[in-house]
Design brief:
Shape: elongated
Helix content: 40-55%
Largest sheet: none
Order of helices and strands: HHHHHH
Number of helices: 6
Distance between the termini: 87 Å
Strand content: under 5%
Radius of gyration: 31 Å
CATH topology of one domain: 434 Repressor (Amino-terminal Domain)
CATH class of one domain: Mainly Alpha
Number of strands: 0
CATH superfamily of one domain: lambda repressor-like DNA-binding domains
């Protein structure tokens, strides 16, 4: 069954529970194995698979064990920047390199690698 805006909450939970059950079975995990690996109770897994609500933190643990956590990126994508945000960011790319200003008249030391032998005062 496809989930649509017209699907009731109960039907949506039932569909998600069935999908998670099929994923668990496909991975050859018993309800007890899944519960133990996710750090939740077996009753939580049973509730989830029967289409009843469970806590979000428990759902995340179960999705992680089933290898489905990254699918939340597709389910809840990051919103693109709004047109006003894009305008604010436009032209903000770095255009040049700036060096710290030197005070005029201040002598600059010659550049070295730093591994040269130290000079003796009489070497000049």
């Amino acid at each position: 069954m496809a989930i649509s805006p017209y699907t009731t909450d109960g039907a949506t939970l039932g569909e998600l529970g069935g999908r998670l059950r099929r994923n668990r079975i496909r991975r050859d995990l018993t309800q007890m194995d899944l519960a133990r690996e996710a750090g939740v109770g077996v009753d939580t897994v049973k509730r989830m698979e029967s289409g009843r609500a469970i806590g979000t933190d428990r759902l995340l643990r179960i999705l992680r064990v089933l290898g489905l956590l990254e699918t939340l990126d597709q389910a809840i994508p990051e919103p693109p920047p709004s047109p006003l945000e894009r305008l604010a960011l436009e032209g903000r790319e770095r255009q040049r390199v700036r060096h710290p200003r030197r005070r005029s008249g201040q002598p600059t030391a010659p550049w070295t690698w730093g591994d040269e032998a130290p000079r003796r005062p009489n070497e000049g």
